[in-house]
Design brief:
Elements (H helix, E strand, L loop, with lengths): L11 H5 L18 E2 L3 E4 L2 E4 L3 E2 L53 E4 L1 H4 L9 H6 L15 E2 L2 E2 L9 E2 L2 E2 L8 E5 L5 E13 L17 E8 L5 E2 L3 E2 L6 H13 L7 H15 L3 E7 L9 E12 L16 E8 L10 H12 L4
Length: 357
Amino acid sequence: MQNRPVFMIFQITRFLRFFATGPSPNSGPERVTRTLTGTNLTFGHSRVRHRSYSVPDNPTDSATDPSSEMKLHNKARCQVYPRSDKQRYPVPDEKVQWSVPFPEYAPLDFTSNSVLQMPPWADIDFRTAQTNEDTSDSCQEPKWNQLDGKTNRRSHMGRYEVVDKVPRNPVGRTGICGRGCLGRWGPNHAADPIVTRWKRNDKGQIVVDENHKLIAQFIAVQRRDNGQWALPGGMVDAGEVVTMTLRREFGEEALNSLEATEQEKKQIEASINELFSRGQEVYRGYVDDPRNTDNAWMETVAMNFHDQDGQGVARFKLHAGDDAVGVQWMDLSHHLELYASHVDFLQRTAERLGASW
């Protein structure tokens, strides 16, 4: 590794483009399928068959009161809405639940201009369209709690309520209604890859903490929009399988450029295929995200991809992609301060690995 690093500076993005097609990683949230299927991955003229694996089905329509199983959201009640100067209506902890009377509650109705300009990943504001007597199919009320064409409007939390023709956040009040800067009414689906390895010293020995528990590390990226550290995740594109999103976002946010020979590319290809064939789901559901509103919210599928022997992705030298300003291997620890609910996902990962936390 010291004479000519195989994994020096990467251009993984151009190779992971073979993993998935469709809109950009900033495109809107879409279909999370019930089974994560195998995919043919192609680099140049080579092709590798990637094993398939399954995850639990989405909750059935019979699920009831999902908010009772979810702790209070806090980041979704931040005082100022992200990327704006809009103030949320203050919501005390005891008034978050919709079942608690709050007659004076008067949230601002806000949807950002970037969403109202109707990019491919955003819904139309059908409320305004109907007021203007636009009767075209695109202006009709969406089909809630089901697949609506290619748009997945089902929630991992079960059925959500629709009040005054718009979905209601299943966890409770946020202090602002509308869609904010989220594209979809209701659930906006994302995928978060948690790529881990064991921390090792200069001799290659695994490092342990004071309680003799192995220390694990994960790949973290620093977000360009707010400077916070986060998992290299992103939105699930229209009709996209979650495994595609996981690979695409990992490549585009964590591994940016690759300068390697054809032989080295084959080794990298094999490492990525091996890693992403062994993922384990650690979380599926609501995300306490500062972009959430009363009518639009983030949900994710978080999966752990662990390089057990440290001979594959664990050797990658990291370089930030276009959507991130920094990237590094970071220790799993309860002291972490990360974006949205990412610390919760990492705690679940540490428990699954039996690692230090």
